[in-house]
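Anyone else keep sequences and structure tokens together like this?

Example one:
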Amino acid sequence: MLHLEIANMSCGGCAHGVTNTIRAVAPQAAVEIQLAERKVTVRGAPDEAKVVEALKSTGFETSVSEALAE
């Protein structure tokens, strides 16, 4: 499980972009968005580093708040 903070995720469009970016690199992942807190939980991503890199490369200010192996 991967817990992320996305500093510049401020609207529904941003949340949609975050979800699409994650699913592009991890199609089977479950994505939970907490827009008000600017947090994202990703479950089932085989390569967490790719998820983080994909978000950063598309302009999302991403930091890992906690990473736990499933």
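And example two:
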Amino acid sequence: MPEFDFSGSVVTQTGLYAPIGYDTLNNRCADADVTIFGGNGDGKCNSLTDQDIDDFDDIDETEVIGGNKFVSVKAEYRFPVSEALGLIGILFFDGGNAFDEDQNIWDFDEWRFGTGFGGLWFSPFGPIEAYLGFPLDTLEDEDGSVFEFSVGGAQF
């Protein structure tokens, strides 16, 4: 009888929209219907916007990095800048890391945290998004800031 070895992974994403205060763009309380700048997790540059992909460029091809578990959290506040221009401002705080199977993902001493700001413009060509993030626990040889840019869904 043949034997089968199945392996795989599960990726989940959870979002929480929590209205705060008064929606100055639409002149209504923020607990009304979700607007275009609130509660949408799609189209963001990255879930960890304060970590640069170039931080990993000096790692040998055969060196194992990361882990089999990944956790990230992000709190984001989006606010209208200009309704006429379709411009949204963004403030964020995020954290997380990758862990080996023998590591505890809830060991917050191993998490990396950062904060920053950005903007989202609903242009005629599609959404254009830019973030400037700042790692709060910069490691040796890491930059003090990270810039990310996205057009449509492509990240640069």
